[in-house]
Structures are given as structure tokens and as C-alpha cells.
């Protein structure tokens, strides 16, 4: 466990952790009152030794709503999973609105990912 610093908004410690399930960031400690502290998986492009406090704070905002899908009006979300970053929303497939999830590759753009880019990826799912 690597202490990265203190969260400026809530005063809780932010740590980078190498777990058996993969690297992640955690804000605060697990306690009886808070058994599941806020956390986020690390994108595959980052190692726990490479994460700055600023990056960790940004990662703790995930899952994040990027905006609304221009066709379906559904929220377009980006989230970090143990298996990698994904974009999810509702898309039109064969004339029917359906839920779609697509993997974000490369993950090194996860912090700067835009709604336009997410819609492009999701539209590819709808055309399959």
C-alpha cells in the first residue's frame, strides 16, 4: 500500500494498492461504519508506483457521466473495471434501443476521454 496523500475535499487518506485482483486506488480505510471505501481500478497503462495524488483524485471520480447520447438521449458513462475501462450507454441496434458496453483501448486516454469519442465507439457497436 502506497500513501499518495490526503484528499483535499474530505481529508481522507488516498492509497494506491496492489491487490491479488489488480491495482486500485482507495480513499479512506475500511471500517465498521464504512465497510466499502470509495475506490477505483487503475487503468492498465498505470502502475501503483506511477500514480500521483492528482491522478488518483481524478480516478476516484469514476464511473463518470460524459454526457447524453445524441440519438438515444441516454447517459454515456465511462467506468473503470478490473478488466479495463469501458464505455456504456443505450444505442440503436437494428432499429431497437439496446444497452451497449464497449472496451476503451488504449486506456491511456481514460482521463481525457470525450463524449464525441465515446459516441463514435458506441456507434460501432450499433453497426455490428
Polypeptide structure, described:
- The chain has 128 residues and is mainly β.
- It has two domains: 2-59, no CATH class; 64-126, no CATH class.
- The chain is built from two helices and eight strands.
- The strands form two sheets. A four-stranded antiparallel sheet has the order 1-2-3-4, covered by helices on one side. The chain has a four-stranded antiparallel sheet with strand order 5-6-7-8, covered by helices on one side.
- The longest helix is centred in the C-terminal third of the chain and has 12 residues, at 115-126.
- It is elongated.
List its salient traits.
128 residues, mainly beta, 2 domains, 4-stranded antiparallel sheet, 2 helices, 8 strands, 15% helix, elongated
What topology emerges from the helices and strands here?
Elements lengths: L1 E5 L6 E7 L2 E6 L10 E4 L11 H7 L4 E5 L6 E7 L2 E10 L2 E8 L11 H12 L2
Antiparallel strand pairs: 1-2, 2-3, 3-4, 5-6, 6-7, 7-8
Amino acid at each position: 500500500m502506497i500513501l499518495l496523500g490526503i484528499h483535499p475535499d474530505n481529508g481522507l487518506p488516498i492509497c494506491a494498492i496492489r491487490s491479488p485482483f489488480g491495482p486500485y486506488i482507495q480513499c479512506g480505510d475500511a471500517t465498521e461504519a464504512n465497510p466499502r471505501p470509495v475506490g477505483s481500478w487503475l487503468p492498465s497503462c498505470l502502475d501503483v508506483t506511477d500514480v500521483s495524488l492528482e491522478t488518483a483524485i481524478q480516478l476516484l471520480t469514476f464511473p463518470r457521466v460524459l454526457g447524453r447520447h445524441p440519438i438515444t438521449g441516454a447517459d454515456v458513462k465511462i467506468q473503470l473495471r478490473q478488466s479495463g475501462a469501458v464505455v456504456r450507454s443505450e444505442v440503436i441496434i437494428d432499429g431497437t434501443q439496446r444497452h451497449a458496453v464497449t472496451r476503451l483501448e488504449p486506456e491511456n486516454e481514460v482521463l481525457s476521454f470525450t463524449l464525441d469519442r465515446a459516441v463514435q465507439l458506441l456507434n460501432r457497436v450499433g453497426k455490428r
